[in-house]
């Protein structure tokens, strides 16, 4: 086999590296940033991989911020085995960032499925991993109950009939026209809809916002594949919805643009509850780092928080700093990819979990990093 040499530029230092092609790092980031570690709380909890243990999904990560300091997460039960994908129950846990306390939120075997923040009502159901509670895999026959969760994390059962909400969404049922693909927002905020009727689309009605106050529809003109659909992403500290949060580059307006390789990146878009759209351009300082790929981006009081594979960065005034590093191992090593995340209601903390995609039985720790405070 032929041995190749290449130059790796790291800041102002040029290093000559001996590289075997099959052992090369997957994404060795160009060092156009500073390393500034921030405070991290390793909670000791593990993410439950779910139906597909080989591919953790962000949509499976239940992380609900009650405040800037109180967080609810669904995590794997502690067991004697190191394999967290066996039929142990999930558990819903309450985390207090002020005192570092971790406690069970619900009775054993029950998990929080969804939460209505305006009513402070949550729907709970038996964990699908629990061997004794009623559950049939593949059937929507869950035994839902409703609970009231106060601002301090205390829980009380409430009547399903009195609340009149759908326990699968924690929202009141709403009748929308069949001509739409619908994305519900928080109660009182309405919905984003995508038109299916060809005539409407030809008139330029691709997407619209229907507020609950009766106004609308407000034409947004945004393509469905440029909106994150599986879960609403509301930034409480801005009182706005973030419609997309990863780099999407296949939005060329013409085939010629795609052929020339000059496809533009979709800007990150925020929508107010009045239907006004604010666009945040793709950060120029990021274009030469990690191949320019972004798994997650959100504006916060500390700057733009950005996740790319196994690292967390903050961008402020075109300066990039890495605040958490999961490592950049070589091929066949266990890389600590970040799979799920949730910004706190005040924008100063980020809950996330990470783990190796190649090792489904490995632990996937749940951590919380401060975006506003550096490590002492």
Describe the structure.
- It is built from three helices and 27 strands.
- It has helices at residues 160-163, 198-202, 255-259, and strands at 4-10, 13-19, 34-35, 38-46, 63-65, 70-76, 90-96, 101-104, 110-116, 121-126, 145-149, 155-158, 180-184, 191-195, 207-210, 218-219, 234-235, 240-242, 268-272, 277-280, 296-300, 303-308, 311-316, 319-325, 337-343, 349-355, 365-374.
- A five-stranded mixed beta sheet has the order 3-24-23-22-21, with no helix packed on it. A four-stranded antiparallel beta sheet has the order 4-27-26-25, with no helix packed on it. A four-stranded antiparallel beta sheet has the order 5-6-7-8, with no helix packed on it.
- Strand 11 (145-149) and strand 12 form a beta hairpin.
- The N and C termini lie far apart (48 Å).
Features:
single chain, 376 residues, mainly beta, four-stranded antiparallel β-sheet, 27 strands, 39% strand, globular, disordered N terminus
Task: Provide a compact summary of the structure.
This protein is mainly β and 376 residues long.
